[in-house]
Amino acid sequence: MRGVSPHLATDARSFGVREAWGEHLVALANKYPELVVLDGDLANSTKADIFAAAHPGRFLEMGIAEQNMLGVAAGLATTGYVPWISTFAAFVAKRALDQIRVVIAQPSLNVKMCGAYSGILTSKTGKTHQSVQDIAIFRAMPHVVTIVPADAIELQAAMTAMMEDDRPTYLRVTRDASPVIFDSGYTFEFGKALLLRQGSDVGIVSTGVQTTRALDAAALLEEQGVSASVLHAPTLKPLDTEAICELAAATGAIVTAEDHSIIGGLGSAVAETLSERIPTRMKRVGWQDTYGESGPNDSLLEKYGLTARHVSEAVLDLLAETTGARGNRR
Known about the structure:
Layout: E1 14-16, H1 17-31, E2 35-39, H2 43-46, H3 49-54, E3 59-61, H4 66-78, E4 82-88, H5 89-92, H6 97-105, E5 112-116, H7 134-139, E6 145-147, H8 152-163, E7 169-172, E8 177-179, E9 194-197, E10 202-206, H9 210-223, E11 228-232, E12 235-237, H10 241-251, E13 253-261, H11 266-277, E14 281-287, H12 297-303, H13 308-323
Parallel strand pairs: 2-3, 2-4, 4-5, 5-7, 6-7, 10-11, 10-13, 13-14
Antiparallel strand pairs: 1-8, 6-12, 9-11
Helix pairs in contact: 1-8, 4-6, 9-13, 10-11
């Protein structure tokens, strides 16, 4: 099995992901004159306002008209511009879906669709603004690359790679600050998963900010005598199927963890891969078939089963089913 990624941060700190997005758009625009930003009346929330202040002539405020915004982006892409979309994940994945399918995905136009406020932690906006089906939607759409960064460093590295790639891309962006996993030397690669922790008893495959909770779960499991690997998959399409199969072969047990529905998301993608390549016992941690609600972050993570404890308990349950006893396998 491949070695642990060398670009792991050594200091414990958190950084605002949406602020990192806005700031890096400015840096990219200084290098790429073809970059423009289209906003759906949410610039102060997505932090596209950082870009608007730096490049007002390349910022297009489209109002609360997401379908029109994506159509305009498609038109701009046909003339050589690289449009970046600023809106919430719930709106880009739902309100403008038919426009994306017909005028962006089918002709494979170079539009960068950024879904802010993704997942459950959306500052008490509730079920109307929480998007936990967006990965499934874009993963199933031909031609659309789907990226779910773990932290601000990986987000910016992915954005840099996106500007050098001409495929339509969905970039999932979270609202709140989150722990930094990677150091400044990290380089993003499409379709490459990263082994962040190596263990022998079970493999935890995670994506997005949920990877920080997967790492915490592995630490909890170590206290109980369970050795867990953590494989981070920042790209859901293309998916690093080889890394997933290697992990399954090395551990014989897989748990997936995501802030997304287990239907159609990472859990589904891993299950599809393993069922075809190397059948492996597994469990999926994530949203069950339900909608969310408004509430504080910690309360929502607890209620909907996304904490590090929930991930560790899923591992212990899987190992108990496989070996007949929890923990103490080393």
